[in-house]
Amino acid sequence: MQSHEFAIDLPLNEKIFESFVWMIQIMTQTSIKIREDQIKKFANTLSDLGGESENTKSEHEAFRFKFEDFLIIGYYSGKIVFPQNSKLRDLITNALRKSTANTIDYNIIIGSDEAGKGEWLGPLIVAAVALSPDKIIFLQANGIMDSKELPITKIRDFSELIKGNSETHKIVTISPSKFNELFATFKKEGKSLNDMLAWAHARTIKDILKELGSKQRIKIIIDEFDRMKTEKRLINVLSKENITVIQKPKAEEEIAVAAASILARSARERWLDQTSKSIGINLRTLSIQEIKRDEQIKKFVKTSYLA
User: Fold this and answer.
1) Any idea what DSSP says for residue 2?
2) Which phi-psi region, left, alpha or beta, contains residue 165 (left: φ > 0; alpha: ψ -120 to 50)?
3) Which of 111, 126, 231, 294 could bond 257 through an S-S bridge, CB–CB 3.0 to 4.6 Å?
């Protein structure tokens, strides 16, 4: 049987070229996150910077702006999506700076968050990060957001980016064996996991404040879990006029807290990797039944969770 090859000569017209460019942009998209209440102001800023407004394509989209051949899409959730491009990154950074101008009245913002609180496997990690307003904008423009919205590969890369661009940072690692010991002590005293969390958050924050000094205006943001217990642990901090402490739900929408969440989760994953390698067992694959049968492995889990 004779085979035939057919060549179709399609002209590279403007429509085909635009579709090709759009496909490339989709394949190389990146995203950032802003607070939902900042969407309108951010859109106005993009318009002021010369963006050409386009019709949105779904009910979830808050805006679309075209800059030359590139499209920036904003969603009501606070996510902003755009192609990976250094020129666009500078534009986004400028828009963030302009849209938050005159709203930041602190020299330093400290965010604190934890990882491993609800998991029986591995340590409890609490991290705190101190950032200047400029560094907050830089990290936000480079994609820093709540660690729960990021794949683990991004978290590892972002962890190094945060460490290299923070004023300072602190990480407290409470190993499973130490966690079990502390949990038993707190329980005997009629206290709970929230007391342990309050102690760990206060320790990281106080270490950072000691390093920063007392002359700067500082705002501390903590994801709220027990207001009274946290305030009790930070009583000395709360008495200082230049320091404001804010506890609120969904605090990870603040870049400083999001950065802390990334450091905490990255440290926990690193602990699991290193421990698995040292004992020759992949801890992530073990079941609760296997853990309970092996006295050696028990020291790598929060046994108080398995009771």
Assistant:
1) -
2) alpha
3) 111
112 C-beta neighbours (distance < 10 Å), count: 27
b/e map 181-196, b = 16+ CB within 10 Å: ebbeebeeeebebebb
Read off the pTM. 0.85
Q: Which of 149-153, 166-170, 265-269 has the lowest mean pLDDT?
A: 149-153
d(CA 109, CA 130): 6
**If you ran DSSP here, which 8-state letter would residue 147 be given?**
G
Q: Would you list the domain boundaries of the chain?
A: 14-99, 108-305
CATH architecture for segment(s) 108-305:
2-Layer Sandwich (3.30)
Domains 14-99 and 108-305 share a fold: no
- Closest by CA to 127, choosing from 278, 273, 272, 259, is 259
The pLDDT tens digits of the residues spanning 224-281 come to 877 777 777 777 776 777 888 888 888 899 999 999 999 999 999 999 999 999 988 8
The per-residue pLDDT for range 175-196, each reduced to its tens digit, is 999 998 998 898 898 888 888 8
